[in-house]
Design brief:
This protein is an alpha+beta fold. It is 53% helix and 22% strand. 16% of the residues are buried.
């Protein structure tokens, strides 16, 4: 490359190169360009470099602020998680995140915290409830037997005290059996012995057996069977346990008597049995928890003894039979539970 000064026209840079074939020079290739054009190219490269540097800085700033915006709520959730781990479920998280994923994370964590708080409350109620339910018959039996031993009561009155003691003993035995049975089902230690039965006949047999053991005939049970009977592959004894619990609950919900309708239906794969009562219903705030073990509604705590295992136990049985048990609806006009079973 050579630089040529051409007076008033300015400086030129000239590049020349031989054009040769087999050592024979055909000519020369010459390229000349004004100096100012080459300077402009350098300026354009400089501008391009400045632009790229600016974009890099702008991208870094955007990533930094976006990361900080995402990291702040995640750090708050992590802090709340440590708080929950320590047993404090009363957490506060801002719910104003614009990012959908972060908003869902915060919302899900808050719901999980509420559920854990409710379960902790149920656990405490369980301890108090089991202690109370077992202590009451023990105290009663102890007092009655002590009165007989001290000669405070004699004759027919002593026999009545013994009868009450035996009744309280049976009640306590039933609660312990419920606990053992429930734990066995949870551990999948209870065998299921299925057999193929007519659904209409099986339901009528179960209801008839339940009615025979009722001391007071204050409840009318009506069965609406299938027009075309179907057969189910189920364990009749386990299914009877579910029905007994649902019918007992329905009767307890109707203080002055009422009606219980049992409606059967079927589709291509399943059969359903709806148990519908005309009782006082389950309060709306208690409905999400009725299948939680040891949960007992406020009204039931003072009216009926027990450990709150009836519905959870019944659902476990239904699921072990290949079906399910669910609450369809409940209001002041009545409650509907649905048993679902697979067809044979």
């Amino acid at each position: 490359m050579q630089k040529l000064e051409l007076g008033s026209t300015g400086s030129f840079y000239v590049v020349k190169k031989k054009a040769e074939v087999d050592s024979y020079v055909l000519g020369w290739v010459v390229f000349a360009a004004p100096e100012e054009n080459l300077v402009k190219v350098n300026q354009e490269y400089g501008q391009l470099l400045i632009m790229i540097t600016g974009l890099l800085l702008l991208g870094w700033a955007a990533i930094y602020f976006l990361s900080k915006r995402l990291a702040t709520p995640i750090k708050e959730v992590a802090k709340a998680a440590r708080q929950v781990q320590e047993g404090n479920y009363d957490i506060e998280l801002r719910d104003d995140a614009r990012e959908e994923e972060i908003h869902d994370l915060i919302h899900s964590f808050k719901e999980m915290s509420k559920q854990l708080q409710q379960l902790e409350k149920l656990r405490n109620e369980l301890l108090a409830g089991v202690t109370h339910e077992l202590k009451t018959p023990v105290t009663s039996i102890s007092g009655l037997l002590q009165a007989i031993a001290d000669g405070v009561v004699t004759g027919d009155e002593a026999k009545e005290f013994l009868r009450i003691s035996l009744k309280e003993t049976a009640k306590m035995k039933k609660m312990v059996e419920d606990l053992l049975a429930f734990n066995s089902f949870v551990a999948n230690a209870v065998p299921i012995q299925k057999e193929i039965r007519s659904l209409n006949e099986l339901v009528e047999e179960i209801v008839r057996q339940w009615e025979l053991v009722q001391e007071e005939d204050t409840v009318e049970v009506r069965i609406f069977p299938l027009k075309e009977d179907v057969r189910v592959d189920t364990d009749p004894i386990r299914l009877q346990q579910i029905f007994t619990n649902l019918l007992n609950n329905a009767k307890q919900a109707m203080d002055d008597g009422g009606k219980i309708d049992i409606r059967l239906a079927a589709d291509d794969r399943h059969v359903t049995v709806d148990v519908i009562d005309t009782g006082s219903g389950i309060p709306e705030e208690e409905q999400p928890f009725i299948f939680e073990k040891f949960f007992r509604g406020k009204s039931k705590k003072y009216k009926v003894g027990g450990l709150g295992l009836g519905l959870p136990f019944s659902r476990l049985i239904a699921q072990a039979l290949g079906g399910d048990l669910e609450l369809v609806e409940s209001s002041k006009e009545g409650t509907t539970f649905r048993i679902t079973l697979p067809k044979a």
